[in-house]
Design goal:
Blueprint lengths: L1 H29 L23 E4 L14 H5 L5 E9 L5 E11 L8 H5 L5 E4 L13 E3 L13 H23 L9 H16 L3 H31 L8 H16 L3 H27 L1
Antiparallel strand pairs: 1-4, 2-3, 3-5
Helix pairs in contact: 5-6, 7-8
Bound molecules: iron/sulfur cluster (2 copies).
């Protein structure tokens, strides 16, 4: 009983699929025929807009293209179809600008993958659907896409020119002021200053010319090293973030330590008081920084 049922079921599905196929055939039987009489009616042949026949640079109605000669299309092309030649030009404000000189495209090796056009940052490329590309020699497939004469660099507007002149004058004035300003003397810490003073005393106490020259050389060497160190520290301090604010208690402790440095009578006492001051100050500032981060 089951096999008879299956038989009629498959017969029904066969007839349904046959009718489905015949409906497509019947529809095509009455559809108007499209026969292209190429090349006689080439004006009436309209390939799909998505058809990629040939890469081209998009020109606007004023004859400008948007290529900025960045070279992205050349780099992404998988088979070296694109070769760019660029040049540097000088703009009205004296800046150097890279410009496209020749955009060379080899249609013979293009695989129409469109990677070049989709990766162009300025949307300067697209594909024409001009399908008649047959030629007798391969060399004719090598094309220069920037075929229109190059436009001169645009002239600045009066506002741009005025702004540029004002900025130039301000820069020149700042440079002049910086050159004229005397360099601020570097401040040495008391320990370094004490070491230099000691050497100065030795120079003064030298009895022979040789002793004097040796002491002077030692002094010059030490002074150069200490000044270089102080300059480095000053530069680091200038670029360092602002120190956290100390509270009144911490500031009072530092002031007391500073007073002890001032009150010291001998170099040894001064050096010891200075070391203590630096230690206290470093500890208090570290604590203030930790508190600021909380
Ligand atoms: S990616 Fe676009 S802008 Fe860059 S060189 Fe190619 S065409 Fe020009
Ligand atoms: S379509 Fe593909 S193969 Fe052709 S030039 Fe562009 S990136 Fe190269």
């Amino acid at each position: 009983m089951g096999s008879v049922k299956d038989y009629f079921k498959s017969l029904g599905s066969g007839i349904s699929s046959l009718l489905q196929g015949l409906s497509v055939t019947g529809k095509e039987l009455v559809t108007p025929k499209i026969t292209e009489f190429y090349p006689e009616d080439r004006d009436k042949v309209h390939p799909s807009k998505r058809f990629r026949a040939e890469l081209r640079l998009i020109y606007d109605k004023d004859g400008n293209h948007k290529c900025i000669a960045c070279g992205t299309c050349e780099r992404v092309c998988p088979n070296g179809t694109i070769a760019l030649e660029t040049k540097m030009v000088e703009t009205w404000d004296g800046k150097k600008k890279k410009k496209l000189d020749k955009y060379l495209y080899d249609l013979g090796s293009c695989t129409f993958c469109q990677l070049c056009a989709t990766n162009c940052p300025t949307n300067a490329l697209d594909f024409s659907n001009d399908f008649e590309q047959a030629v007798f020699t391969r060399s004719k497939l090598l094309k220069k896409l920037n075929y229109l004469p190059e436009k001169p660099e645009p002239e600045p507007t009066p506002e741009q020119r005025a702004k540029y002149e004002a900025e130039k004058a301000a820069k020149a004035a700042a440079a002049k002021a910086a050159a004229a300003a005397p360099a601020a003397p570097l401040k040495l810490d008391p320990k370094s200053q004490a070491a230099l003073d000691g050497l100065k005393a030795k120079i003064a106490a030298a009895t022979t010319d040789e002793e004097k020259a040796a002491a002077q050389a030692k002094y010059d060497k030490l002074e150069a090293a200490l000044k270089a160190k102080a300059a480095k520290e000053a530069a680091a301090a200038a670029s360092a973030p602002a120190a956290p604010q100390l509270d009144a208690k911490a500031q009072a402790a530092i002031d007391a330590a500073k007073a002890k440095v001032d009150a010291a009578t001998t170099p040894e006492e001064k050096a010891a008081a200075q070391a203590k001051l630096e230690k206290i100050e470093a500890a208090l500032r570290a604590k203030a920084a930790r508190d600021a981060q909380k």
